Amino acid sequence: MMLLSATLLLLNNPVATATSPVAARPRPIQCSDDCISPVEAVTFASYLAPKAGIAGTFRMEVKAVGEQKGFYYLNSEADYRDRNCLTIAMPAAVMAELAGGQGLAAAEKRFTGQTVLVRGVAQRVKIGFFGDDGKPTDKYYYQVQVRIGQAEQLSVTRAGLSDDRSLAQPSGAVRSGP
Hints:
The protein has 4 helices and 8 strands. By secondary structure, it is an alpha+beta fold. Helix 3 crosses helix 4. The longest helix has 11 residues. It starts with a helix and ends in a 16-residue tail after the last strand.
């Protein structure tokens, strides 16, 4: 009897198929007071290392930009070796998309002095030193990095709002009055 009623229920209520969206828009990068600061990111990631990192949305002012071997780095401190420096690492293609041009000069012009929001995982990374002969030495330091692979993971902010890229538009209406 149970099987018959279940069959009748399915026949009377056919399963609706959902159409797939033409283009899925990424979630806007927004940040109120719950963004993670560089010092918090470094502290939590160091505590969780080497087994894990901290996932979230990070807010930082870019104080320095660097490039090495096809990767670009946005640093929260002027000295990337500073203990409290949070670094956003990305491939050159992602940087070119974000900066609107290629090369370190374009990256520095676009990001130095700007506040950025980045969505990802902050993890402690071991950075080794190399000798003059190109061989690794036994010296190293740790750096906390958020590695991104897509431009949609990063947004530049100004005056508390995200920039005019479509992924970063604030959502919802603004209420006025009580």
